[in-house]
Structures are given as structure tokens and as C-alpha cells.
């Protein structure tokens, strides 16, 4: 009986494994390069998906309350949302525009008043010099600069995001099915369930954030109006919009309000700061727990870490979208790792 040489078969297996390993490494390298160079595409896609989730969530609310079929509730949600935006702009747009123009004109004098106040107070001057020496302002300027110097500009970004959101809204199942089909056949059911879980968490997060932004706007506008602050409407809008960014947004919104109040008196500026701290206290202790009731529990420190990390990687847009990115990562870790480890542990007992 003739003995066959096993060496060619061994070499063939070895070469196959080398090619497989090389292919995997190449795929990882290409994926990392794309994620680094084309990170704007990821942000556009995520922002568009959030817009689509909002429209579908609003459509579901309309369908539940009015018994309208989903065929009509979805376009109705888009029409109502756009009508609300245009109606709001029509009612308060002229007032806000006037206040913004006035605020822009007053910024140089407000900054000068702030400098004079700092120079006249030795303790505050010492704190300011320490902050300036730590280059915090420089780093913040670079971070914000990344936002305004993005690939196609801010308005171009918004234009692209809106169109992506509209396409996602029109045919969400088509895109979800396409993603699921990329998975192996035995993993498609799990992949579909995972996407549904992510969408559910993002919907709950977005619903809570919109409610939180509205509460911050109302409380801030009432407080500023009581204090007799000029430009109270635009300042309250800024506070409401920036509350979309946890931790850093409320801090940024204090700056223009404090500058405007400082033009009246230092005590007024102090009261405005107290007001903003009170609103933030209410939001973080009462609103945020309501937001996270239906979400995977996320430690506050982890949100800050994710904002810093994603902000360094993706710029200011990354800071804005850091929380939904963290929500997605937490769902993936929970479903793909923690639950499987728990199942293995329960089976081993």
C-alpha cells in the first residue's frame, strides 16, 4: 500500500489559515481606517436614525390616541412636527431674532464688563488665571472649532442629516432587513432582536430628552423673566437646546446668561447662576431618573467618560451624540456579552 505524503495537505491548510488570518487583519485595518477617516458618515447615520425614531415614535403616539392607521399617522407626525416648528418660528421667531441680534451686538461690552468684574475681585481673578493657565479655554475652543469646521459645514451637516432621517423614516424596514441579511443565517433572528432592542432604548432616551429639554426651557424662562433679565427668551431657548448635551450643555448655557445678567449687576449675575444650578438640580434629580426608567442603567461617570472620549475622536458632534452612542454600546454589551455569561453561569450550576 502506497504511503501518501501528508506534507502538501498540511501546507495547504497552513496557507489557508494564513490567508484567512491576513483577510481578517486586513478587514480590521480597513474598518479602523474607515472609522477614523469617515467618522462623519457614522454621525450622519446615527443622527438620521434618531430623527426617524422620533417621527415613528410620534406617529405611534398619534395612532394610539386617535386610532388612525400607521399609513396616515406617519405622514401626519411629519406634517405636525414641521408645522409646529414653523408655527413656533412665526410666533416667537421675530422676538428671538431681535434678541439674538441685540445679544450679538452686546457681546463685546458684556465681555468687557466681565473682565472688569474679574479684575476688581482678587479671588475670582486668581481662579480665572488658574483656569486660563490650564489651557481649558484653548482646548474647549479647539473642540468647538471642530464642530464649525466639519467636512461640509454645519448647515451642510444638518441638510444631510435631515435627508438621511427622511429616507430612514420612509422605509425603515428596508434598511433593517438589509443589515440583518449581512449576518449569518443562524444569527439573523438574534440580529433582528438586537436592532429592535437598540431602537426601543433610543426611543425611550429621545422621549425623555425632549421632555427634559422642555422642562429646562420652561423653568429657565420663568426664572429669567422673574429676575427681569433682558433677552430671557433666547437665553431660555439656548438652555433648553443645550440640555440635550448632558453635563457640559448646562455649563455652557450659563455663560451667556451670566454675561447678560452681569451687565445689570454682579448680584443679578449671581442669582442667574443660582437659577441655572437649581434648574440643573431639578433636571438631574427628577427628570433624568424618569428618562432612565426604561433604559439600561448607565452610571453618570460613564456618560462623562464617553463624552470626553467620543469628543476627542469625533469632535463636537461626537459630544452631542455621545449619549446615544453610549446607549447603543450598553445594549450591545448587555445582549452580546453579559446575558451570555449569565446563561453560561446558570447552566454550570
TrEMBL record:
InterPro entries, per database record: AI-2E-like
Organism: Sphingobacterium zeae
Membrane topology: Multi-pass membrane protein
Lineage, uppermost ranks: Bacteria, Pseudomonadati, Bacteroidota, Sphingobacteriia, Sphingobacteriales
Main location class: membrane
TM spans (from-to): 14-36, 42-62, 74-94, 147-171, 210-229, 235-262, 269-288, 308-333
Protein name from the UniProt record: PurR-regulated permease PerM
Pfam families linked: AI-2E_transport
Subcellular location as annotated: Membrane
Protein keywords: Membrane, Transmembrane, Transmembrane helix
Family indicated by similarity: Belongs to the autoinducer-2 exporter (AI-2E) (TC 2.A.86) family.
Family matches, as PANTHER family: TRANSMEMBRANE PROTEIN (PTHR21716), TRANSPORT PROTEIN YDBI-RELATED (PTHR21716:SF62)
Keyword Transcription regulation: no
